[in-house]
Each structure stands twice: as C-alpha cells, then as structure tokens.
Amino acid sequence: MMWLLVIIILILAIYLFYALLNPEKF
C-alpha cells in the first residue's frame, strides 16, 4: 500500500515537472 502511494506521488511530480517545462501543451 505504501509503494502505491509513492508511485502516485512520483507520477504526479513528473507530470507537474513536464507541465512546467512545456506549458503550451497543457
């Protein structure tokens, strides 16, 4: 259960990072 939470946080962090790098796509 703990690993699932970590994976979700990592995915959200990566998504936000790409959104900051490419704001025109979002």
Automatic annotation (TrEMBL):
Q: Name one GO molecular function term.
A: P-type potassium transmembrane transporter activity
Q: A cellular component term (GO) from this record? A: plasma membrane
Q: Which Pfam families match?
A: Potass_KdpF
The protein's name is K(+)-transporting ATPase subunit F
